[in-house]
Amino acid sequence: AAELEYESVLCVKPDVNVYRIPPRTSNRGYRASDWKLDHPDWTGRLRVTSKGKTAYIKLEDKVSGELFAQAPIDQYPGIAVETVADSSRYFVIRIQDGTGRSAFIGIGFTDRGDAFDFNVSLQDHFKWVKQETEISKESQEADTRPKLDLGFKEGQTIKLNIG
To answer: Keyword Transport on this protein (predicted)?
Structure first.
């Protein structure tokens, strides 16, 4: 069934900045002010796609479309995408390569509206995933309930008076 699922694009943002971030020093969360915001380590295009129940953040070259990094997301909010404590335009994502290695990087948008669209596209996807699982649970429960038999039994009749 996994190979029958198609990939759909949820959001495309043409300008995103990527930052190397210092390790988290405390449990308080990440702060974008700790990053070198005026010197991004990479700039490119961001695409949010979904395949089945998993969403993917793909960072791609603006011109060639070559994949720079990818972050699979199983739940949101979660460890794969975190907001920073001091800005609504910056996020920390966990990128993974094909071998299972992962790293945390910072991404940022120059426009607050782009950051809002990115956030909402992830929220909408996982709201849809939640609704799909609830619908499938309800249909499974309906299959296990006894069927209501409203048919006539052998020899049973009905009388109608039409006035």
So the answer is: yes
- Tell me if 41 sits within 8 A of 20, measured CB to CB: yes
Q: Is 93 domain-assigned?
A: yes
Which tens digits make up the pLDDT trace of 2-57? Answer: 567 788 999 999 999 999 998 877 777 888 888 888 999 999 999 999 998 999 99
* CATH number of the domain within which 117 lies: 2.30.29.30
Question: Which amino acid is located at 62 in the chain?
Answer: K
163 in any annotated domain: no
In this structure, the strands spanning 42-51 and 7-20 are antiparallel
Strands (DSSP E) found in the chain: 7-20, 42-51, 54-60, 67-73, 81-83, 90-96, 102-108
| Measured distance CA(136)–CA(128) in Å, rounded | 12
Based on the structure, what is the number of domains in the chain?
1
Does the pTM surpass 0.70? The reply is yes
Q: 153 vs 78, 146, 147, 150, 157, CA distance in Å?
A: 56, 18, 15, 9, 9
- Please tell me the chain's helix, strand, coil percentages from 3-state DSSP, rounded to the nearest 5: 25, 35, 40
Structure tokens of 142? Answer: 């309906």
